[in-house]
Every structure is written in C-alpha cells, then in structure tokens.
Amino acid sequence: MPEKATITALNDSYRHKGLRKRMVDTLRRRGITDEAVLAAMGSVPRHFFLAKDFEDHAYEDKPFPIGNEQTISQPFTVAYQSALLQIESRDKVLEIGTGSGYQAAILAVLGAKVYTVERQEALYFQAKSLLAELGFRTVHCFFRDGSLGLSTHAPYKKIVVTAGAPVVPEPLKQQLAIGGVLVIPVGSEIQQMLKITRLSETKFQEEVLDSFRFVPFLEGLNKDDGGR
Which residues in the chain show pLDDT less than 70? Predict the structure, then answer.
C-alpha cells in the first residue's frame, strides 16, 4: 500500500484486517488462485470506498450501492477481472468505469499505471479525491465517455471494463497494444466475461468465460451529481 494509505483520518482497524483476511479466504475457496491478486485484495481496505452505512458489511462478497445508480463490484468479480489481466509491473492499464475507485486501487497495488475513466461527474470527483488522499500516485482519473476510451494515452497493455456492454466498443480494441488484453463483460441482463487479446493490427483472439451481472455500460457524460 502507498505510505499515505495509513493516514489516521481513515480507520483501518485490526477488526477490518481480520475481516479482509476472511474475505481473501473466501475468494481462494471460490477459485481465485492468483496470489498477487489475493495479496492486493488483502491489503486494500474496501470499507474506505463505501459509505459509512455499509462499513460493517464491506468484506462480504457482495456489491453495494455507491450512488448515481452505480455499485462497487463484489470482491470476487474484482479479483476475477484482475486475475484475467495478469498485471505486470508498470503495465499501462485503462479502466472504463472508475466507480468508487476500488478496482483502480487494486490494479495500482499490483504494479499498474492506471488511467481510469468515469462518466458520472459526482463519482469521478469522489474517487479522484479518495485515491489521492490514500496516496495512489499511479492512478490518473478522467471525466470522460468510456465508450470512446482514452486515446490521448493509448496504446494500453491492458484494458478492463467494469460495466455490462451490449457490444465491445471498437475504440477500446483499437487502443489496445499488440499483445495486450481487454477484459469486458458483454450482454444485456446477464453478461459473459470476454478476454480479448490483440494479435496484430487487424487480428484479435476472443475467449468467452463465465457469466456475471454488471450495471449497464452507458455512453455520454452525466453531470448531475445525483447525491450519494
């Protein structure tokens, strides 16, 4: 964890650490075998990324609302997507859907340089402030339409999408480096997780994996703060 993540303004008690260890044990039982991902999940205090009302339940394997009709993904989903990305030190990663900032924090702990895009203005400001307060200097937040990606910093070694898309947005495929990996859930009510590897300028390999349920992938920007 970054040094500033230990600031006293945010309380990470022995109880929280014990609950986090139990969460990691649950993830391991559910089939997550990537030890680097498990260690990252065990080091990032998930309760920092949730409203106080949910603090006592922060380490349950459940999604929770974070405002603007968005949720923080359940720990298993975060671990699953992170493991598929196979993050290596200094990988340049694009995340579509910052949300609470939790997934970006996990990627940063894994060693990635993260460019994360959020279309909900209120969530963008909230996550950007929290990640800065926690000392995540390798996470760069942008208020953008995620369907367009973030061409100014492309290409990316890894891209991850944290909302259910009806189709794979073409800009994301084109912003992927050759040899890079895109992880995206695709579908309507229930999504299939896709792992797309760019083999050349024109060729992509697609793997269809497990089923999940995400909030919808939406285009455009939402400047209505919507409350929390």
Answer: 1-10, 224-228
